[in-house]
Write a structure and sequence with these properties.
alpha+beta, 8 strands
């Protein structure tokens, strides 16, 4: 009988060897980590981009609103019953008379910051002689106003010499108003808030 010659075992190269269970787990974990990093980067980009767009829209809207506010303040005048143009002023509000609807009668107007909104309150004159006894109609002028939480004045007042009025009961001294509106959609996020500063000279005071 012929003797069988034992064959030598073939060596298996690493490239031919299958992956072990541990190697599979390691590969999966590396793959998932890379995917999470990519997804996180994409989500972060979209969040930042969304916030930037929201902030830009809020600032643009607030800028238009503030420009409208100072335009009305500029036209403050004696009321339809002859009262002095400026009623009251504080660091967060100003109240005065002005014709805001071109009807030849002057409305009682109040701009004020409440919460995170800049608001306008209007009382129309009624009766003959005209009187301001009706209910005040309040509307929101601008959103995302952060003056109160940032402890910053919304309104600053100056006299005819350009000196700041510190006694805010001296309404007859007022000639010039500066507004500073702090705008930020999300204070906890960057970029930081933007302050819109504008001013108005009261043309009709004497």
């Amino acid at each position: 009988m012929e003797k069988s010659i034992p064959q030598k075992a073939k060596k298996v190269s690493p490239s031919q060897r299958g992956l072990t269970f541990i190697e599979v787990l390691v590969w999966i974990s590396v793959f998932l980590s890379a995917m999470w990093a990519i997804v996180g980067s994409i989500l972060g980009f979209y969040r930042a981009n969304t916030y930037t767009l929201e902030q830009a829209q809020a600032v643009s809207s607030a800028r238009r609103s503030v420009e409208g506010v100072v335009a009305v303040i500029r036209e403050a005048n004696y009321s339809s019953e002859g009262a002095y143009p400026v009623i009251s002023m504080s660091t967060s509000s100003i109240s005065f008379y002005a014709d805001i609807d071109d009807d030849l009668l002057l409305e009682k107007v109040r701009y004020f910051v409440e919460g995170t909104n800049l608001k306008r309150g209007v009382v129309d004159p009624t009766g003959d002689p005209p009187a301001y006894t009706g209910a005040e109609v309040v509307t929101v002028v601008a959103d995302y106003i952060r003056n109160i939480e940032q402890n910053k004045n919304a309104f600053t007042f100056y006299d005819v010499a350009g000196a700041q009025i510190t006694n805010l009961s001296q309404v007859t001294a007022l000639r010039f108003v500066r507004t500073d509106m702090v705008v930020n959609v999300s204070p906890e996020k960057l970029p930081n808030e933007l302050t819109l500063r504008t001013s108005a000279t009261l043309r009709n005071l004497r």
